[in-house]
Amino acid sequence: MAKMRAVQVTRPKGPLELVEREIPEPGPGQVRIKVQACGVCHSDSLTQQGLWPGLQFPRVPGHEVVGVIDAIGKDVTTWKPGQRVGVGWHGGYCGRCEPCRRGELFACTKGLVTGVTHDGGYADYTIASDTAIALVPEGLSAVEAAPLMCAGITTYNALRHTSAVPGNLVGILGLGGLGHLAVQYAVKMGFRTVAIARGKDKEPLAKQLGAWKYIDTQAQDPSAELAKLGGAKTIIATVTAGEAMSAVQGGLDINGSLIVIGAAESMTISPLILLMGRRSIKGWYSGTSIDSQDTLNFSLLTGVRSMNESFPLERANEAYERMMSGKARFRVVITTGN
Ligand SMILES: [Zn+2]
Ligand SMILES: [Zn+2]
């Protein structure tokens, strides 16, 4: 059997180990992807730390995968070898459970998650469901496309499903891996985009990404500043600190929404702010494969790009540590050389 390199975790909180494995064969309805690049996302820590319920080891993390289909399983009719594709967090759906039958594929009760319920992209090859892959347009390199498969789709898909229309004030809370993409998407969608983050030093970056205004939460009250600008129709909260999320709710315009995409443990909500202005708070799930494809195409069309630091597969451990340190500017991507 031919062998490949893979980086796996064998126990909760265990190290990322580079091992040799047999190249897997695609089953019915699956494709094999020869991986070119895989982004390193904070959610990979759910696998590394064994936090996902029922997680089985050993497991290969990675849900920002881009590569080329090199083999297809039985019954795969809409994809063929040679096509360049990506796969993200959403690992496929059954089409038969109640959420699927209602068209809410993201909520499939079978819940396939790439790099969590099955092996992901920290490897030379990975197997993906043919319902979970997105076509990658030619104009994007693998390294450019990889972070868009999670950080990109999450911010783009959340933004395009809000009630904000071009010209409306939209706040982006946080300027990290998600936030630096969210600001770009909001600008390209025609929103008056206000970037909100901690520290004066992030202002030049916000402006470089196209933000109309910048609010430094260390020096200013973000709710008061947003209110002065007329209030935000939408605020996308990309941070993982509940306190920072709580601090912006007073900056929503009437009928405005705070959309939570950062996994904070808890936050404080003022019922008075919600009911007096008919404001709302909701969460957003990244999306399915066609949403990924839309994200990639929109990014190519409008020039939205993630800022990346690349590491070869052999240095996956270092890449992961770099991401976890929070010091990466802004997404970390593993490359295989394939
Ligand atoms: Zn992710
Ligand atoms: Zn289902």
What is the global morphology? globular
The low-confidence runs, each spanning 5 or more residues with pLDDT under 50, are none
Count of extended strands = 15
Count up the helices: 11
Ligand roster: zinc ion
**Per DSSP, what share of the residues sits in E-state strands of 2 or more residues?**
25-35%
What tags apply to this protein structure?
338 residues, alpha/beta, seven-stranded mixed sheet, six-stranded parallel sheet, 24% helix, 26% strand, binds zinc ion
Plain-language structure description:
The chain has 338 residues and is an alpha/beta fold. It is built from eleven helices and 15 strands. The protein has helices at residues 44-48, 98-101, 142-145, 151-160, 179-188, 203-208, 222-228, 242-246, 271-276, 289-302, 316-325; strands at residues 3-8, 17-22, 30-40, 65-72, 84-87, 125-129, 133-135, 169-173, 192-197, 213-216, 232-237, 252-260, 280-283, 308-312, 331-335. Strands 3, 4, 5, 6, 7, 14 and 15 form a seven-stranded mixed β-sheet that branches. A six-stranded parallel β-sheet has the order 10-9-8-11-12-13, with helices on both faces. Helix 4 crosses helix 5 and helix 4 (151-160) packs across helix 10. The chain is globular and about 65 Å long. The site of one zinc ion has 9 residues, from helix 2.
Provide a concise account of the structure shown.
The protein is α/β, with parallel strands linked by helices and 338 residues long. The protein has helices at 44-48, 98-101, 142-145, 151-160, 179-188, 203-208, 222-228, 242-246, 271-276, 289-302, 316-325, and strands at 3-8, 17-22, 30-40, 65-72, 84-87, 125-129, 133-135, 169-173, 192-197, 213-216, 232-237, 252-260, 280-283, 308-312, 331-335. The strands form three sheets. Strands 3, 4, 5, 6, 7, 14 and 15 form a seven-stranded mixed β-sheet that branches.
